[in-house]
Write a structure and sequence with these properties.
heterodimer; A: about 250 residues; alpha/beta; nine-stranded mixed beta sheet; B: about 300 residues; 8 helices
């Protein structure tokens, strides 16, 4: 059984992003980039399924310009078998990303597609669900456990009130939450080996999909700064301030 | 213009966040209908009919919607969407799960997690864990939107909308519910509490979260945690406050042993008053705190509990 893992190149999660002075967008020039943390968890899960003998092939796919090949090589070093880069310079809306991925799903016919639940740049949390709708597949979002059982997959989901387990008929879509697994570090030999694994490049334009933008980014501004607070010296002073100054406790 | 708001509920109670989502719908402006999709959910429909600003409540009461599985609910909402310009849900786990499916079935993109409305097609939403605020115009003819409830004030509940039963049972047949393991707590919901006290890696282990419980009980507070505390296995993920957990904006947020990573700040920095207790005076949490106390939490927490 094949697993497809779409991944995204994003700002490294340790880096605090800055807004450009002209408020046109955030400034990503010379900023450290990395594989989106939730996508990394998706790769790890697919590789573990392969190591467990459930899965025969793990295919990583990313949509972006040549620079996202770096993240695809990371996925290969973590254990993916081959990679596909869908080349575009555009910053695509989720619906258009999902449409491109739909074409890849039609070509590759995976039984399972594992994606990160959200990218930490746009914070949209959409692509997996959209791909599920377009392919007619069921979805297990925000997964903390994935168990394949014959022609079904049981997915335990992180929901607001706790955990929910659902059963999906394969082929299915899973999106990862942070407790699904702890991704491994790529070893040096595996990083070297990844350089020789196949990475195919396809042009987004060749898929014959209308990729017209659906949104117009009008401006990007920094968030309102909080006013600097004060340091209190004791619990007594803290309680006094909360009662009489902030008036949030009585 | 006409707007369909999806009611967030558990078949017995209408979630208070829905009242804030209706406020977002009012900011867009138009005739507002509310959809209650569930099973044996008449009590929710009654509650929905009292929500101010809602002129009609549509109830799809069918076993197919008992667990609000995304496959089934998205088919229903997509069908109903034909009559509306905007379809809106709360950005909680149900809405986040099924709404992008609706968007894709309608061939539109979704505008997620809006915190303000500029006009009927232009919305404000945080990106990069709230370190940037984007103003985005939707170019699609139909708008599919999820609302971050901390951005809006709840509407009142003294209305009386008409309730209309829908005879629908859209069952995709490719997913089923197995079981729920719900956290049981006597304390208020994290999202609804006016006071939240959260622990971080500094708590050292799950057992020590008991130190927060006495204070939470005295204040009527909910207990949260940072991602670091969840990752370390101290507490379950449903307690996580942050970019990928719950977004809260209580009147008072007390951060204990939390360094203040940007991912955590994203989930709480809109709180009215923030208190930080941390033994590291350089911890970034102090930059957003109104009141900071540099102290060992194992001394400070028992003392605080005693003085409340």
């Amino acid at each position: 059984m094949k697993v497809l893992v779409p991944i995204k190149r994003v700002i490294d999660y340790n880096v605090k992003v800055r807004v450009k002075a002209d408020n046109s967008n955030v400034d990503l020039a010379n900023v450290k980039m990395a594989i989106n943390p939730f996508c990394e968890i998706a790769v790890e899960e697919a590789v573990r399924l392969k190591e467990a003998g459930t899965v025969t092939e793990v295919i990583a796919v990313s949509i972006g310009n040549k620079s996202c090949q770096e993240q695809l090589r990371t996925a290969l070093a973590l254990g993916a078998d081959r990679a596909i880069q869908i080349d575009t310079e555009e910053n695509l809306d989720s619906i258009n990303v999902a449409k491109l991925l739909q074409k890849v799903v039609e070509e590759e016919q995976p039984q399972l597609v594992i994606l990160g639940k959200q990218a930490i740049d746009s914070d949209n949390n959409q692509t997996g669900q959209m791909l599920a709708a377009l392919t007619g597949m069921p979805q297990g979002t925000f997964a903390s456990a994935v168990k394949i059982d014959g022609d079904k997959v049981n997915v335990t989901r992180e929901v607001d009130s706790g955990l929910q387990t659902i059963a999906l008929t394969l082929p299915a879509i899973v999106t990862t939450d942070l407790r699904l697994n702890e991704p491994r570090y790529a070893s040096l030999p595996n990083i070297m080996k990844a350089k020789r694994k196949p990475l195919n490049v396809k042009s987004a334009a060749d898929f014959g999909i209308d990729l017209t933008a659906r949104t117009n980014l009008i401006k990007v501004t920094p968030p309102a700064e909080r006013k600097a607070g004060i340091v209190v010296e004791s619990i007594d002073e803290l309680v006094e301030k909360l009662k009489n100054e902030a008036k949030v406790i009585s | 213009m006409s707007i369909l708001v999806y009611a967030e509920h558990d078949n017995s109670e209408l979630k208070a966040d829905t009242l804030k989502t209706v406020a977002a719908a009012q900011a867009i402006g138009g005739d507002i209908h509310m959809l209650v999709a569930g099973s044996n959910c008449q009590a929710v429909a009654e509650a929905a009919s009292k929500v101010n600003g809602v002129s009609k409540v549509l109830v799809a009461d069918n076993a197919a919607y008992e667990h609000q599985l995304a496959e089934n609910v998205s088919l229903l909402v997509t069908e109903l969407a034909a009559d509306y310009d905007h379809v809106i849900a709360t950005a909680l786990t149900t809405g986040k799960n099924f709404m992008p499916r609706v968007a894709a079935l309608l061939d539109v993109t979704q505008i997620s997690d809006i915190i303000a409305v500029e006009s009927s097609d232009t919305f404000v939403r945080p990106i990069y864990a709230g370190n940037a605020i984007a103003t985005v115009q939707s170019l699609d003819s139909k708008k599919v939107i999820t609302v971050r409830s901390t951005g809006f004030d709840a509407v009142a509940t003294d209305g009386s909308a008409e309730i209309v039963a829908l005879d629908k049972a859209t069952d995709a047949g490719n997913s089923s519910h197995v079981n729920d393991e719900l956290s049981v707590s006597e304390r208020p919901d994290l999202g609804a509490a006016s006071i939240v006290i959260s622990g971080g890696r500094g708590m050292q282990n799950g057992e020590n979260f008991k130190l927060l419980e006495g204070i939470a009980d005295k204040l009527g507070a909910a207990i949260g945690a940072s991602r670091a505390a969840v990752d370390a296995g101290f507490v379950p993920n449903d307690m996580q406050v942050g970019q990928t957990g719950k977004i809260v904006a209580p009147d008072l947020y007390i951060a204990v042993g939390i360094s203040g990573a940007i991912q955590h700040l994203a989930g709480m920095k809109d709180s009215k008053v923030i208190v930080a207790i941390n033994k590291d005076p350089e911890a970034p949490i102090f930059q957003v705190a109104d009141y900071g106390l540099v102290a060992d939490l194992f001394d400070a927490l028992p003392e605080l509990e005693g003085k409340l």
